[in-house]
C-alpha cells in the first residue's frame, strides 16, 4: 500500500463569495486601505472611513459552517417544580425515522452474529465519544470502570484495536490495556506485532519495543512531518493564548485546536487565525471534528487505510473468513466506514444521538449503548466457549475429531 505525499493545499472547496457581515468575521481582522482623508466640496475636512480590503480567500465561511454543523445543539430543557423535562421538538421522532436507515446495532445484533458465523470477528474502536463521553476538557475524557472492563473482556476473544485522533501514547495512557492494538493520530502512528514480512513491505516501519519489552513494529507514514507539526503547534499555542477556552493539542502527527469552551462569537476569530497560518503550509490540511479543528499532513492515509493496514498486519487480509466491525462517532471515522461498506466487507457502527448521514450500517445512541454492545459480544463469545468446552468433554477419551 503506497503512502503518497502531495503538495496540494487544503481540501475545502471555495464557497460563493460572501460579504463581511455574512462571514461573521470581526472588522478588526480586516486590513484597512491606506487612503488619506478627503476634502468635501464645502471646504470642510471629512475623514472617510477606511473600507476593509476583500479577503483573498473566503473559505473561512465554509469553515464556520462546518464548525457549526459539527456542534449539534443540545436538547432544550425547562425546569418545572424542581424537575427537568426534555423538550423533544419532534427530535425523537426524527431520530426514530433516521434509524430506519441506520438500525440499532443492539436490535440488529443477531443479524451481525449470523454474518459472523465461521468468521473471525475483529473489532476496531474510536476513543472519544465512543468509549468515553465527550467532555469539556479533553484531558479528562476518561473511560468508566465498567467500559474498561468490557473492552478488556472482549479483547480476550476478539482482536481489538483503538484507532484515535489522539497521539498513540496518550490514548494508551487513557485506555491502559496491554491486550489491545493502538493507532494514534488518525492512524498515522500504528503499533503492531513484529513480523519481518510487514517491515520489508513498508518503508515507514521501524522496530521498537512495547511497555512489556516485546519487539513490535511502528508504522508512521507521516514521520517526515514531525518537525512541521511541532512548529505549527507552537504557533497555534501562541496565537490562541488570548482566546478564552481555546485549547491546542499536539498529537505527534497532527494538531488539534479545540473550541468547545470558546464563546461562539469568537469562533470566527479562531477560524481566521488557523486559516491564515495554514496558508503558509500547503502540505498540511484541515479537517473538522466535534468542536475541534484538526490539522494534519496531506498524505494518502486515514482511519480507513489504518483499518486495512491492521487487518493485513494481523494476518486477517482474507475477506472471506474475517468480519471487521468499526465503532466510531466522528467525521474521521467515516473513512473506516467506507472501507467496510466497500464490497460489503464488514460493519461500521455510528455512535450518534442526532440524525446525520453516514457510511455506517448500524447505529448506537451513546457510550452506554456501546458498552451494551460490547457486553452482547462478550456474552455471545462466552456462550460459544462454554458450548465448545461441553462438546469436548463429551468426546470419547483419546478420540480426536479434528
TrEMBL record:
Alphabetic keyword roster: Hydrolase, Stress response
This protein's record includes keyword Nucleus: no
Catalytic reactions of this protein: alpha,alpha-trehalose 6-phosphate + H2O = alpha,alpha-trehalose + phosphate
Pathway named in the protein's UniProt entry: Glycan biosynthesis; trehalose biosynthesis
EC number of the protein: 3.1.3.12
Short name of any one Pfam family annotated for the protein: Trehalose_PPase
A biological-process GO annotation: trehalose biosynthetic process
Cited InterPro entries: HAD-like_sf, HAD-SF_hydro_IIB, HAD_sf, OTSB-like, Trehalose_PPase
Range of residues in the leader sequence: none
Keyword Hydrolase among UniProt keywords: yes
Gene Ontology MF terms: trehalose-phosphatase activity
Cofactor(s) listed: a divalent metal cation
Purpose of the protein: Removes the phosphate from trehalose 6-phosphate to produce free trehalose. Trehalose accumulation in plant may improve abiotic stress tolerance.
Family: Belongs to the trehalose phosphatase family.
Protein name: Trehalose 6-phosphate phosphatase
Organism ancestry: Eukaryota, Viridiplantae, Streptophyta, Embryophyta, Tracheophyta
